[in-house]
Design goal:
six-stranded mixed beta sheet, 14 strands, alpha/beta
């Protein structure tokens, strides 16, 4: 992306966005700050100023006025460390989302914001239930590591909001958790390649649109990181527009996103070219799996 993109902002879009980054030091394992950078840049290129608030335990007051809330990935010990703080922040988080803030939770954040995360390493970690999901890490579970692509439904509001109607989302997964969705959330997308929520359902992520599940704001949870938003500008804009509209997506002027879509296409092509099983059996694949088991979730 070049920094000189500057279309004028549409009349119904605010000129300022408040982005809250939950636990930026503890949950930032896979370059998740890149998601914050993507949101702030895409806002700035449209003439929208961005305020980023990094918040932790006891900072519930800083959630007031939030437009977008983001939480990233971390290792098991980090999930345990922030669990109590998330319970403490549950009420102000819920108020912010019900006021229209859009929530994007990635990997460990996806697990932590559900009802519960169970792991043989850390036991059961209760969550605030802001995402209607539960995650189990079975003993000896296969770790899902590698590139992943999703196909959005034909009627997906994310695809509908993109002028080109692109329906694919790409990213990188590294997790042993098996996540199941409750009745108030639907899958983010269908797995094209990769493993997704549980390795068997064929789905990845979870989404509740504004108004669904009794909350006014958009909520998305996903295992895709690497980071996610720079390679998926349609998803970045959907989250940004939903937050700016306080649950009602505003119209954002399009950006010349050729570099982002080129990165998106090359990522998908590179991982499609890897034959099933070759990555897992390779020496590099085994080493990465071992490293992931030490630091991942």
């Amino acid at each position: 992306m070049s920094a000189d993109r500057a279309p004028s902002v549409s009349g119904d879009a605010p000129d300022r966005v408040v982005i809250v980054h939950l636990f930026p030091d503890a949950l930032n394992l896979y370059g998740d700050r890149g998601n914050i950078l993507s949101l702030t840049r895409r806002a700035a290129w449209r003439g929208i100023g961005a305020e980023v608030r990094g918040i932790g335990a006891g900072d519930g007051a800083a959630l007031a006025g939030a437009d977008v809330i983001f939480i990233g990935g971390g290792a098991d010990q980090h999930q345990r460390a922030v669990a109590d703080a998330l319970i403490e922040l549950a009420d102000p988080l819920r108020r912010a989302i019900d006021d229209g803030a859009a929530l994007l939770a990635v990997c460990a954040g996806y697990q932590n914001l559900g009802h519960a995360f169970r792991s043989p390493l850390v036991g059961e970690i209760p969550g605030p239930g802001l995402l209607d999901v539960e995650t189990e890490m079975p003993v000896g579970a296969e770790r899902f590591v590698g590139g992943i692509a999703l196909e959005l439904d034909a009627d997906s509001p994310i695809a509908a909001a993109d002028p080109s109607g692109r329906r694919r989302v790409v990213g990188f997964e590294n997790h042993s958790g098996r996540t199941t969705l409750g009745p108030t959330m639907r899958p983010l997308g269908r797995v094209v390649f990769g493993r997704g929520n549980d390795g068997s359902s064929g789905f990845e992520g979870a989404i509740a649109m504004p108004g669904e599940g009794g909350l006014r704001g958009l909520r998305i949870g996903t295992y895709l990181h690497g980071p996610l938003l720079p390679r998926n500008p349609h998803l970045a804009d959907f989250v940004l527009a939903s937050g700016l509209g306080r649950g009602r997506a505003v119209a954002l002027p399009p950006l010349p996103d050729d570099p982002e879509w080129d990165a998106h296409q090359r990522f998908a092509a590179d991982w499609t070219a890897i034959r099933p099983g070759v990555y897992r059996r390779s020496r590099i694949g085994r080493l990465r799996d071992r490293l992931g088991a030490l630091i991942g979730f």
